[in-house]
Amino acid sequence: MSKSDRDDGVDRRKVLECMTWVGTGVLWTVAGGVPHSLGIMGEAKAAEAKGLTFLQISDSHVGFDKPANPNALGTLEEAIAKVNAQPQKPAFMIHTGDISHLSLEAQFDDADRIISQSRLDAHYVPGEHDFLDPDRKLYVQRYGRGTRGAGWYSFDAGGVHFVALVNVFDLKGGGMGDLGAEQLEWLEDDLKGRSASTPIVLFAHIPLWTIYPEWGWGTDDAAQALSYLKRFGSVTVLNGHIHQIMQKVEGNVTFHTARSTAFPQPAPGQAPSPGPMKVPDDQLRKMLGIADITFKQNEQRLAIIDSPLKS
Amino acid sequence: MTMTETMRNALIAAALGAATAGVTVAAVLPSLAQTAPQASAGAVAIDNFTFTPQTLTVKAGTTVTWTNRDDIPHGVASDNNAFPKSKALDTDDSYSFTFATPGTYKYFCYVHPHMTGTIVVEPNG
């Protein structure tokens, strides 16, 4: 691809190689476009300077009960227990979608009951599984207060500007994730007038970078969205959907996907389909997890710690 | 696929030959399908995030049934709203629609829109 891609990017094979390390709890920091691993999670946590730390959980799929994980609610509960056991309380949580499996009231109720046990403010974006009720109303009714359109919004915390995007609504045949013209216009306007030194975190369900179009793992109009972010020095894009960790750095933008709390999915092209991957029972919790993201003030540096439910 | 096409054509020819006015192809096909299960005209399986067959050709009046065999829900929606979209289909759920009007109906999975398929509806007679 482009020169900058080669210079700054981590190709898919490299990312896949890194994944095994990430999976054991390696801390990644990203400085100057090059990811470095700093050591095992415990050391890294001890060395952490004060900054804004928030938590990402994703793809809880409450209601899923198939062989890949007969009790997705149970593993969500384990994930929240892990959050509660952390020595330092994160400032808040983001959930990058697929809260429920089938958009049933009872599934949203169960998810809320468990997630609220963290006593953290939770900022949501929907996944495609959260718009499966016939009228596609429940998500916005429950989580959409103060949001626009199908649930997009922005907020500021700890000097960072957070933008929550929806790329799973009204998808077009043959396409991938989609933001749509109205949301893009809103995004451009939302970013206008903000200082280029403001760290930006964009979060959405489907990756905003094309990981594997054959499985729809990308967002058709993401390039347009990212074009509004070129002038910002630090941009972090956090996604879910693919139920595995992947990271890529391209210029000023770090892309990262989080694990699911429900079930793993295969690496791109490594199975006939992206469907739930059944692994041996003692492996499942190594492939599910949460992520902590820390910004240190006045450093254009971000640290993401992915922690499995069990290491 | 050639086999399927050939058999389907044979089935339709047989059906048309046997049909009196008012007996539709759709009504005849199920009984024939018992002896030739690979020629399951009117049925689309959703398996491994794929519609199979990708293109299904039927006569007008045929009821097409989609059945989800995946561990993940799927949904069926017409590209241009030419037929009503299904509710979310969980594992083993089905959705049926009777295509009365000849034409080419492109559709996709509204949960995973990279999954696409086509129903070609040919005129009777």
Please characterize this protein's 3D structure.
The complex is a heterodimer of chains A (311) and B (125). Chain A has 311 residues and is α/β, with parallel strands linked by helices. Chain A has a single domain, classed as Metallo-dependent phosphatases (Purple Acid Phosphatase, chain A, domain 2), CATH 3.60.21.10. Helix content of chain A is 24%, strand content 22%. Chain A has helices at 3-8, 12-22, 41-47, 72-84, 105-115, 138-143, 181-191, 222-227, 281-284; strands spanning 26-31, 34-40, 52-57, 93-95, 122-124, 153-157, 160-164, 200-203, 235-239, 246-250, 253-257, 289-295, 302-308. A 7-stranded mixed β-sheet of chain A has the order 2-1-13-12-3-4-5. A 6-stranded mixed β-sheet of chain A has the order 6-7-8-9-11-10. In chain A, strand 8 (200-203), helix 8 and strand 9 form a beta-alpha-beta unit. In chain A, helix 4 (72-84) packs parallel to helix 5. Chain A is globular, with a radius of gyration of 18 Å. Chain A starts with a helix and ends with a strand. Chain B has 2 helices and 8 strands. The longest helix of chain B is centred in the first third of the chain and has 17 residues, at 2-18. With 125 residues, chain B is α/β, with parallel strands linked by helices. In chain B, strands 2-1-4-6 form a 4-stranded mixed β-sheet, with helices on one face. The radius of gyration of chain B is 14 Å and the shape is globular. Helix content of chain B is 21%, strand content 34%. In chain B, helix 1 crosses helix 2. Classes of the chains: A alpha/beta (311), B alpha/beta (125). The A-B interface holds A 66-68, 101-103, 128-129, 132, 134, 171-176, 213-216, 272-276 and B 48-50, 70-73, 75, 77, 79, 87-88, 90-91, 106-108, 110-116.
